[in-house]
Design goal:
The protein has 206 residues and is of the alpha+beta class. The protein has a single domain, classed as Helix Hairpins (Orthogonal Bundle), CATH 1.10.287. A two-stranded antiparallel ribbon has the order 1-2.
Length: 206
C-alpha cells in the first residue's frame, strides 16, 4: 500500500524520518511486549500458588465452621456468627508493571470482637476467628493477582495489535511509498537529463 503523498524530495525526507521513528517504536513495543509476556507467565505461577493457599485455608475454615455447626444448635450457631464484629482497614494503592498501572491491596489491620456466648458456642469457633485474618489476606492476595493478570492481558493484546499494525501495515506502507517516490524522482531526473542532452544537441547543431 502506498501512502497518499506528493512524490517530491521533501516528502521523501519526511518519510525516511518517519520510517526510522516507526522502526524504533516497533522495537520498543516489541521489547515491552516480550517483557510483559514474561511477567504474565510469572503471575500465572503466583496465581496457582495463591489459589492453592486460598483453597487450603477455605477447606480448613469450612471444616472448623462445620464442626461448630454440628456441635451447636442451629440458633446458637447463627447467633454466634452474627455477634462476631469485624473491623478491617484496607489500603488500596497501585504500582506499575512496564508502565501499566495495577492495583495493590494491603490489609493494614483486622480485628474481631468475639461477643458470642462461650458456654453455648463450640471452642472451635475461636480457631475460626483466629484463622480469619490469614484467610482474608489470602483472598486479597488472590484477588490482586487476578486483577493484575486481567489488566496485563488487556495491555498485552493492545500492545500486540500496535506491534502488528507497525510491522505489517505502517512500516511496509512507508517503505513502499519511499520506493515509489524514489522511482518517480529517478524517472524525472532521467527525463530532465534526456531533455538537457537534446537541448545540447540542438545548440551544437546550430
Amino acid at each position: 500500500m502506498i501512502l497518499r503523498v506528493n512524490p517530491n524530495r521533501m516528502e521523501l525526507l519526511k518519510l525516511r524520518k518517519r520510517l526510522l521513528l516507526a522502526q524504533r517504536g516497533h522495537k520498543l513495543l516489541q521489547d515491552k511486549l516480550e517483557e510483559m509476556m514474561r511477567r504474565f507467565m510469572l503471575i500465572l505461577k503466583d496465581i496457582d500458588q495463591a489459589n492453592d493457599d486460598f483453597k487450603s485455608r477455605t477447606a480448613s475454615l469450612v471444616k472448623d465452621l462445620l464442626y461448630c455447626r454440628i456441635t451447636s444448635s442451629k440458633d446458637d450457631f447463627k447467633e454466634a456468627i452474627s455477634k462476631i464484629k469485624t473491623e478491617i482497614k484496607l489500603d488500596i494503592a497501585s504500582t506499575r508493571i512496564m508502565n501499566v498501572k495495577v492495583p495493590t491491596f494491603t490489609l493494614e489491620a483486622v480485628s474481631f470482637d468475639k461477643n458470642y456466648d462461650f458456654y453455648r458456642t463450640s471452642g472451635q469457633m475461636d480457631f475460626v476467628v483466629a484463622e480469619s485474618a490469614d484467610y482474608i489476606k489470602s483472598l486479597l492476595r488472590l484477588a490482586q493477582l487476578l486483577k493484575t493478570l486481567d489488566i496485563l492481558s488487556y495491555e498485552i493484546e493492545r500492545t500486540r495489535r500496535r506491534v502488528n499494525a507497525l510491522e505489517y501495515i505502517l512500516i511496509p506502507a512507508i517503505t513502499d511509498t519511499i520506493r515509489y517516490i524514489t522511482q518517480k524522482l529517478n524517472e524525472l531526473e532521467r527525463g530532465n537529463l534526456v531533455r538537457l542532452m537534446r537541448v545540447s544537441d540542438i545548440v551544437r547543431s546550430h
